[in-house]
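## retry 2 of 3
previous attempt timed out at serialization; input unchanged, resubmitting
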Amino acid sequence: MNARGTAGADDVRAVVLVEGLSDRSAVETLAERRGRDLAAEGVSVVPIGGAQAIRRALDLYGPRGHDLVLAGLCDAGEEKSFLRGLERAGLGADLTRAAMEHLGFYVCEVDLEDELLRALGADVAEGVVEAHGDIGPFRTLQKQPEWRGRPLHDQLRRFFGSGGRRKIRYARFLVEALDLDRVPRPLDGVLAHV
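## retry succeeded, writing output
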């Protein structure tokens, strides 16, 4: 875990702490689409390797460490880990979601893929899959007994989460397909904070 992802270590003034590589891809892609050069701004998007690592990341980059401007993004299932981490880092007590957002930490309902799918709509997201040559494997998933007849949204979310590096690749593709007026609030908020 280091801040060298988008800026040199000496030039970093802010970090966006994300759970994994797909989240980093989404944040960086949105920054590009918004015309921001994060490296030039001294902002690094740091995948921490899962929510359980938030405390260590906050110790390293927060007030007890490098004392950088902080922001973060997590899934709803990991909100409690982030809350505990922020509190242990001395950034607040009995934090609410609104208080977390004031600190620059945003929670994705379910997860980032779910947020992106809702912002795009399942039909548009399916078009993204087709445009990137993966409609065949997606149709195979749709034929599997446990996924047959399920809502398209759920099938796509499962598809993005399976198959090696697919989640990372599609984070970029989905953000590239977004109407910039419909960017999911957590993704927009975390980027705006830095």
